[in-house]
Amino acid sequence: xxxxxxxxxxxxxxxxxxxxxxxxxxxxxxxxxxxxxxxxxxxxxxxxxxxxxxxxxxxxxxxxxxxxxxxxxxxxxxxxxxxxxxxxxxxxxxxxxxxxxx
Length: 102
Prior knowledge:
three-stranded antiparallel β-sheet; 18% helix; alpha+beta
């Protein structure tokens, strides 16, 4: 009786992981923050990404945190956030990036 239970649990765990296979890749491209998302599932997803950009503006260092919400339709693969800035890209860095989808 224990073997079928283990098999059912393993099957459900695999389905759960496969059903939540969204990925987000991100980075700075020039002076813009770009995030690309992939949603291979049959369901649309609501997502959120938070990030901090550090920069130097006319020699004065600064830092600003951002939080962006976006949706990903089923079977989506493309840009989900395109956030241009006016800061000099040679002074920019990215930190504290986190994201989630539900």
